Amino acid sequence: MIHSLFLINASGDIFLEKHWKSVVSRSVCDYFFEAQERATEPENVPPVIPTPHHYLISVLRHRIYFVAVIQSEVPPLFVIEFLHRVVDTFQDYFGVCTEAAIKDNVVVVYELLEEMLDNGFPLATESNILKELIKPPTILRTMVNTITGSTNVGEQLPTGQLSVVPWRRTGVKYTNNEAYFDVVEEIDAIIDKSGSTITAEIQGVIDACVKLTGMPDLTLSFMNPRLLDDVSFHPCVRFKRWEAERILSFIPPDGNFRLLSYHVSSQNLVAIPVYIKHNITFREGSSQGRFDLTLGPKQTMGKAVESVLVSSQLPRGVLNANLNPTQGTYTFDPVTKAGRTPAEVGSRSAGSDAPPARLAHTAREVERLKVNRLDMYGEKYKPFKGIKYMTKAGKFQRDDLVCITGVSTLTYETVTLEPSSIITFTSAGPN
Amino acid sequence: MSANSAFNDEKGGSSSVGEPEYGHDPASGGIFSSDYKRHDDLKEMLDSNKDSLKLEAMKRIVAMIARGKNTSDLFPAVVKNVACKNIEVKKLVYVYLVRYAEEQQDLALLSISTFQRGLKDPNQLIRASALRVLSSIRVTIIVPIMMLAIKEAASDMSPYVRKTAAHAIPKLYSLDPEQKDQLIEVIEKLLADKTTLVAGSVVMAFEEVCPERIDLIHKNYRKLCNLLIDVEEWGQVVIINMLTRYARTQFLNPNMNESLLEEGSDKTFYGSDEDEEEEEEEEEEKDKKAEAPAMAKRKPYVMDPDHRLLLRNTKPLLQSRNAAVVMAVAQLYFHLAPKAEVGVIAKALVRLLRSHSEVQYVVLQNVATMSIKRRGMFEPYLKSFYIRSTDPTQIKVLKLEVLTNLANETNISTILREFQTYIKSMDKDFVAATIQAIGRCATNIGEVRDTCLNGLVQLLSNRDELVVAESVVVIKKLLQMQPEKHSDIIKHMAKLTDNIQVPMARASILWLIGEYCEHVPKIAPDVLRKMAKSFTNEEDIVKLQIINLAAKLYLTNSKQTKLLTQYVLNLAKYDQNYDIRDRARFIRQLIVPTEKSGALSKYAKKLFLALKPAPVLESPFKDRDHFQLGSLSHLLNAKAGGYQELPDWPEAAPDPSVRNVEVKDSVPEWTKCSSREKRKEKKVEKPFYSDSEGESGPTESADSESDSASSSESGSGIEESGSGSESEESEEGSESEEEEEEEKEKDKKKKKKELKKPVQESESEQSSEEERKHERKSKQRKSESESESDEEEESESESSQSESEDSESEAEVKKKKKAAESKPSSKPVKKDNKKEKKEMSLLDLDDFEPAPSPQATPVNAFLSNSLATDLEGLSLSDAVLSPATISPSSALKSYEMLHRITGEGLSVEYCFSRQPFSPDANMVAVQMQFTNNATSDTKNLHMEDVKLQSGMRVKEFPEIELLPAGEMVTAVMGIDFCDSTQAANFQLCTHTRKFFVSIQPPVGELMRPIFLTENEFKKEQGQLMGMNEITEKLTLDVKCRNEHSIVQRVTTAANLSRVPCGSDKECRFAGRTVTSSSLVLVTVATKEEGAAKLTINCEKMVIGTMLVKDILLALTQ
């Protein structure tokens, strides 16, 4: 299946290669570089590139291209999903998944890749199994290893691979037994010029951090499970129980994991807690224009909207902007004309993945998912349980702002948006 | 870390072979910093006896490999460390070895013995990892070693090792395709594996090695469906894709209701309802014939239950977190489900659109294809495909594609409004795609054609030239459909020639004007005039169109344009581009009448002004669904290497009974059942429900165990083995427990299981009753071998009852009972075999005289324990068995080969008679009993198409010419199992039908008893030590603590004879395997309070380990 893997950084260097079958020359990546040159943006490189003898399937994460070399038919999603799993694992191990982190831990990376694939077919992809095989590097352990010469490779054998619950390692012990669940909902919305919502949908996840001793068996029930009509589960969740009783019953993995994610589609009514208005004018005869953006909470909302962040991409032609926010702070990120190399993309915006207009807030008036109770079976102790609810803005954007997208980015940030306050900020610059 | 420092030193990363590796870092590589010779420091480190140095060196080497540097010259130094104690060093050496072994084949061989040793390690994980590395070494010389290792690992006890074996199969195949046949055997074996761990890997191997051998899947189909949900996610993807192909070959198209041909359909229809009673079938057939003309047209489609099973079991996987799994299920539904059910996948696919952009890209490609075929499916999710400015261009274009496919009369206005926004985008490619999309909407939906056209015309005044150009091209295509109405648009466009500079757009306008010059008679010559003026500065495609325009105008309006045309043609004559010069010359000859002009010029008008067909604006995703969705080939719209075509639905469904595994496991549902069966079912319904709902599988079996245990004194061998197999089954059941629970709720499917369960239940009920009787009696009884003749009679009838098991109806049992009672033949007498067979005597015993044919030596299944023992006691002629040591031969457990419902009235049971098979001593005698429950006679019963593992042989039973309705016949066949528990598969043929059946021996039947003295036993045992000895501690069952019952149980589990022994704390048994005559020695040493030690000495380790399991089970329950 997966023949080889190449890691390519933003400037087009292959900095790691791994082969699972016979060696494929790295010149195969030339086809990839060709495609990369053709693409205007780094993310526009097609994920699947056919070459005369191989197929290249790539994903772009953290400004690193993970290019898998395939020789014959295989479902492309299979490879893509696996590559993302690799990235997640690296992130899990090293905290970040950057070129530097990978280079620093090249041996661990190699050992991980060796365990994750056997002859190109995924073998152990559960992070718990991998952590039993290869211990994640920590500063302390690195020091100890240098002094004592001991290793990162687990001495004991990965029994988890053999168990019926491969996601949980055996013999877990904690002095404080805790289980935390974060119910996070994100609203994706597109709003048209007049301010009315074209589409809005909710993307929810329940992220869990479970630190419990032994083999606990948890059940989680909801007050309003009918909201969950489109769900995807962590493999630990028992499907049948959910189908029959709408109760989540599972033996949790150890540590952090995503228990489920759900999707409330655009058919349901989703109210947006803020309104946003804008106006663009161009002065005749001059190269200057004016861009007003007004943002305020909707009157119906009782609660305050916190941590509002607006970021807006301005056209490439904008050289400079004078910003006058009525509240909060702002930053403007100019990018040089030559600035299309991926290395400089980093300075593009404050958050590396910030969409053009982005809002964050913490309140929502529509009914939200509520957890009813959490029970534990199988173990004797009483765990500490905690549940937190959060609503965030997902991909939230004004439809007509697309006409002014570009490279430079305007970021505006404020702590709280009180029900009565309105912020506007104005920018001027050549268009 | 010096690995990192070495890395940083050479950040330039040029991969030259000769580049030296320096240990610059003073902290770690200090001692070597003076060493400038290439890799010498590393060699030294590897040669040192400090693990930490070795580790350091290996880390640096691996870092070099990671950067693609050549470190092959270190091979000898590295390979030495393959047996290093340090686990990390070892692992890194493996990494190195696998990378370079192909280049350094000879040296790589040095490491092989280490792995061979690892293959024998008691720890399963070490065995697995040894196999993994061994099979990854791409050295052709070791192919036979790999083959051997894979074969061995495939029958390993540990599922993890078996999984590794499955992984190794494609590795070996790619190394040496010659091994295919042998590998297929291994695959076949592993496919039968029941653990989820193995399933995904072996199907992957199957797909790589022999995807065309779809026949290997039949027997495992249902198991795979049921296991699917518990298989790890990557395996799920592979299995689902494979099953999609399988289903396409085996089932009928659920969406084809009436296209079946009459002849084929008749068969098919019945074929899928094999479960129907034969009589009913006949009745219905008559009905059918009466209504034949009517029915032929509208044949109700009945989905094969197996087809339904697949759809039902994959559905929950739509909720997987793994996008690949969701996609796999989606494509399965798209290709296999009835139209009405395909809709369920839409929601899941839309959910994936929130994932990474690469995932979106693939999903959208597939949605685009699906949305052409099944537009309604995605219509509710229209808004989810709205485009965000942050999407990468390729995603935007794909979303546009989907939106266009989804457009219809009702939603077109919203879609067009969206499109209007998109046109303002900065992304030029995207804008161009949007305009094309508008064009396609306009062609597809007649009502909005004018609106679209107007919108596009408005775009012609856009500031952006690209937008205008693209619009022109699209408008041109639209106008071609109905040019008459739109002369004003053409006029408008004619004006644009002054402004638009994009060549393609200019060319399009000129073409339009030329084509429809009759609609714009005044403007056209003027345009030509302007163009003639700028001719020399135009692009080539524009020039060609100018010439075209000139020619067309000349033909229609020569008065006004003659001179202009001449001028243009003259200009073109001296153009730099030879295409243009050629065109000019050609056109001049064609249109300008000269004396020399040929016959063609007459047709010039026809040539130029012929009616051109309007272009069809089609989706690039049209008809892409002939590729399996979700595949690489589909994505690329080209066949990728190794792509397996998705076959078309068959015209008529192939025989569904091929998927029947062991018949007792998979009795298909029936639509109607006779009153008799109903009654029986009702009777047992209650216990069945309370049992399986209240308790889990294991407890259930535990109950029946205690039942059987209570009767341990009597010859309850049947029960033991019976309950044993039951508990096995229920364990199996608990794997798919949830599955079953669900099924219970679903009425329709319930019957299938119900049939199975009640049968078991009734079995145990029936037999437990007997056992109570047995128990009472056994108190009086001293030992089996001394039992009195009157008791014989009873036990005969009892055992006959218990033997008859489930499938026999009560009435039949009674009949037999009567038969048994009516023939109180307490003496073993030689009888005329042929006569007796018909009357079903219980005492057909002819094995004392040398039998001329296998048929002459049938051993009756209804032979009771005590009787058999008596008879054996009498057989003084038999040299092997001596009366003193003879084991109390247990009653024979019979197995079902063909259930009467599957067999359409014919039921077959078989048992291992434990008699020597006279035609061939290396064969195990299998006695089969055929019962014809149908109303009609069965003829020409014989076997065909025997499929065996290599080395196995079968001596077929002679054909049974006639089996009258309601009669029973026995026959004996011999099978040489080659000392393995592989099943022998063959077809059982009657004059009308063929059934796939299989015979699988328990390991205990693969041996024959031999007589040894105590000394001989000890001597032999002494030679079979070490690897050949397996010892297991156990606690004996409460009911099994005396010597007698131990002997009883062991001999029931295995065909062994007792060895006399001085100590009463020890029981010894001896036997030889049938094929290879390897000794099998069993010792059970008892201690206080039921503790015991079981020792088995056997050359054949596999046999030994399996036997340990069986005997252990027999003794502890």
UniProtKB/TrEMBL annotation, chain A:
Top-level lineage group: Eukaryota
Matches recorded under InterPro entries: Adaptor_comp_med_subunit (IPR050431), AP2_Mu_C_sf (IPR036168), AP_mu_sigma_su (IPR022775), Clathrin_mu (IPR001392), Clathrin_mu_CS (IPR018240), Longin-like_dom_sf (IPR011012), MHD (IPR028565)
Keywords from the UniProt entry: Cytoplasmic vesicle, Golgi apparatus, Membrane, Protein transport, Transport
PROSITE patterns per UniProt: CLAT_ADAPTOR_M_1, CLAT_ADAPTOR_M_2, MHD
Annotated compartments: Cytoplasmic vesicle membrane; Golgi apparatus
Any one Gene Ontology BP term: vesicle-mediated transport
Broad class of where this protein is predominantly found: membrane
UniProt KW Metal-binding keyword: no
Residue intervals of the MHD domain: 176-431
One Gene Ontology cellular component annotation held by this UniProt entry: Golgi apparatus
A Pfam family recorded for this sequence: Adap_comp_sub
Entry similarity comment: Belongs to the adaptor complexes medium subunit family.
Name of this protein: MHD domain-containing protein
Species annotation: Etheostoma spectabile (orangethroat darter)
Lineage: Eukaryota, Metazoa, Chordata, Craniata, Vertebrata
